[in-house]
Design brief:
The chain is an alpha/beta fold. It contains nine helices and ten strands. The strands form two sheets. Strands 3-4-2-1-5-6-7 form a seven-stranded mixed beta sheet, with helices on both faces. The longest helix is centred in the C-terminal third of the chain and has 19 residues. The relative contact order is 0.13.
Length: about 375
Amino acid sequence: MILFGIDRVAEYRELLAGRVALITAPSGRTADNRSSIDRLREVCDLQLLLAPEHGVRGDKGAGELFDDCVDGPSGLPMMSLYRRDGKGLSFQALDRFDTLVYDIQDVGCRYYTFISTLRNAMAGCAGAGKRLVVLDRGNPLGGTVEGTLLQRECRSFVGCWEMPQRYGLTCGEFARMVNGEERLGCDLQVVPCAGLTRSMMFYDWGRVWVMPSLAMPRFETALLYPGTCLFEGTSWSEGRGTADPFAMVGAPGVDAEGLSRAFNALGLPGVESTPVYFVPTASKHRGEVCGGVHLHVTDGHSIRPVELGFRLVELARTAFPGTFSVLPPQTAGGTCFLSLLAGRRDLEEPDWSADTLLRDQAADCAAFREQAEQYRLY
């Protein structure tokens, strides 16, 4: 069985000095299916929980801001890292710990905000002279790198660093890279996994899938997410408010059968679609009948989700122009959300081409793999 960092904390207890705080989520569990909170209390002085987006217990919705409280199951105080006044470590939080521990299962995609929380935590700890210990976990999407590099002007909380959408690193490796390349000077320590190799995906871990958030119910959702999450920046539904978010996309007025035929004709590896009509119970088009596609992963090793996303957004724009639009920026003079997700502004243009983006990604991915080489642990 693969051992993650939390399974090896007894070997590294000397790193957990003084008062300890923990950033975690529902996926923070041991190989024998115990909460990371309970396990850390056995080996260190755990005094504080710090909650990322979705909360420590996963009970917060996407983008839902929340305040400090007491964590009911553990009785520990919990401070929010997803507040109205910021998404980093406050001075009040920094005063309450000597060592910060990070233990969250990521999904291997740049948009997913847990790595942004980790990057912010490193910067906060560096400025305050605090140690940060990452309990490493495997990347469920494996070591494959796919996508286009985020351009610096498109940095945001859904894109905190210049890397492709599918970056092929563990959270510990990501932390090492950011700390080194940005010269943060964080006292960063990584408790490595045991038995993990770079080619391994979630299929190879021998573990159950614990939802990192409620909109990520299956591993197949995580495989599709680097592509279909792009629809969050458009007028089409990305499937929130349905039984299969990020696997169903569509909009009112879309011919589901025609869209499914056109998508399948693209011949993309590892995925096929069936037509679907759905009524979201939340988010975009709530209560409206949407036509679209239901995506099915047929081969998790060969699927290229970023290409899937670019191709499907392009298909929606060209085949159903009356139903499709790019959502405007939320603030005057701001960058539209689709560009923040894509990491570049090309998709705001009316004549952008998926072929052009996919040609760019070859050089982008090669450059990123070379840059990341010195920070890899597996």
